[in-house]
Design a protein that fits this description.
Length: about 425
């Protein structure tokens, strides 16, 4: 069975599995990375995600290698550009990665523009299909934090300036669509609000947040935003004509024609004659860490603590973003993960199939029919057999009985890895 596809945006069809590349250049050598990319592409995956800061753990010596390896694969394998969807991300303010534009310090126009140009150069391509803000410029609770602390807010670059820089890149043909990552409901709505107010600003088409059996926080707030804040694309001849609405409760309207990016559209606008065919889209979730950094695979529950080259073992104490969220010394996390693992054993499923299938891939799964907002699950693999296990998840059907048991565990252990 081929990997299912999803229409993320006009002329942007992605596989519902996306190969993340953050191990390329650290855990995976160039030949190993090429092998994984070959297997993924030949297995029906057309969607590849990277970031300017990758690989992880982040180091000055390796920064940018993941994008570089991906670009070298495209060039050396002579992959037709329209056969793949490339996504990458600009790093938000950190202060810890001084080798990336001095911090990076902020997401102002100069930093975003420089980041885009550098990613294009490393990947040796003319354009990026989906360009994402890796994390917000402003303070937000992330990577295991759950409570917002107003005293931690700092001076940040406005969303208007960020969207202005991204709109210029769209107009220049450097990027096609934009998305956000590690965002909150407030952030998603602000990006929508600003794009609604300033007509030539692109509208976000995706949110890349963590989503797995141990972390369903997306459903608590952002899901509602994504569901309601859709857009319509009217199709006339070979062009996508977008009829945009400006202002609240009325105001003026005008039309904008583009073949590159989606812009905010009011569902109440009346299209010009002749009546066009139209397609509607919602903002979609790109679910990263579907296996909770490998915890849901069960490998860390072995008597010896799992493979010595597993990420949480080999980088122990060096990967704070992951360890702060997926900490097996937390008894609640461990108990929940073990119970999900027991479900897989009970129904003779591989734990990977249970975790991935629960998110988005089994078209017959009850959870999928209930939750149509997940476009693709972004997973990582350092070995061929890991990649193959994820590909097999496409053929798994989760029965109502399995879904019920999963939801029972979720009710007792709600989001232990937020």
């Amino acid at each position: 069975m081929p990997v299912p596809l999803f229409n993320l945006a006009p002329n942007l069809t992605v596989s519902r599995l996306c190969l993340g590349t953050m191990t390329f250049g650290e855990q995976n050598s160039l030949p190993q990375s090429f092998g994984l990319l070959d297997e993924a592409f030949n297995g029906g995956i057309n969607f590849f995600d990277s970031a300017e800061m990758y690989p992880v753990p982040q180091r000055a010596e390796t920064q940018g290698r993941s994008e570089e390896y991906l670009g070298r694969w495209i060039k050396l394998r002579k992959i037709p550009r329209d056969r793949i969807v490339l996504a990458t991300k600009v790093a938000g303010p950190s202060g810890q990665m001084t080798w990336i534009r001095g911090g990076p310090k902020c997401l102002d126009c100069r930093n975003i523009t420089n980041a885009i140009d550098s990613s294009l150069r490393r990947m040796q391509v003319d354009y990026i299909d989906l360009y994402q803000i890796h994390w917000p410029d402003r303070y937000v609770p992330m990577f295991g934090e759950t409570e917002y602390d107003p005293t931690r807010q700092f001076c940040s670059v406005g969303i208007e300036e960020q969207l202005d820089a991204l709109s210029r890149a769209v107009a220049a043909g450097k990027i096609r669509y934009i998305g956000v990552s590690n965002e909150t409901p407030y952030g998603v709505m602000k990006f929508i609000q600003v794009a609604d107010r300033i007509a030539h600003y692109p509208k976000i088409v995706s949110v890349q947040n963590s989503y797995n059996l141990l972390c369903r926080t997306f459903d608590a707030g952002i899901a509602e935003c994504c569901h309601h804040e859709g857009y319509v694309v009217f199709l006339l001849s070979m062009h996508a004509r977008l009829f945009c609405h400006v202002g609240e409760g009325g105001g003026s309207s005008y039309q904008y024609t583009t073949t590159l990016a989606c812009y905010k559209v009011s569902l109440e606008c009346k299209p010009a004659s002749p009546l066009p065919v139209y397609m509607s889209y919602r903002i979609s979730l790109l679910a990263y860490s579907p296996l909770a950094m490998g915890i849901l695979s069960g490998k860390y529950f072995a008597a010896d603590g799992g493979p010595v080259d597993a990420r949480l073992n080999v980088f122990k104490g060096r990967y704070s973003e992951g360890e702060s969220r997926y900490n097996l010394s937390n008894n609640i996390i461990k108990a929940a993960a073990l119970e999900y693992h027991d479900i897989a054993i009970k129904y003779s499923l591989h734990p990977v199939s249970l975790a991935i299938g629960m998110i988005s891939l089994s078209l017959n799964a009850a959870f999928v029919l209930r939750h149509p907002l997940v476009a693709s699950a972004i997973f990582g693999a350092t070995k061929s057999w890991q990649l193959q296990e994820v590909l097999k998840a496409c053929m798994i059907e989760l029965t109502p009985e399995i879904i019920a048991e999963i939801n029972n565990i979720h009710a007792r252990f709600p989001d232990p890895c937020p």
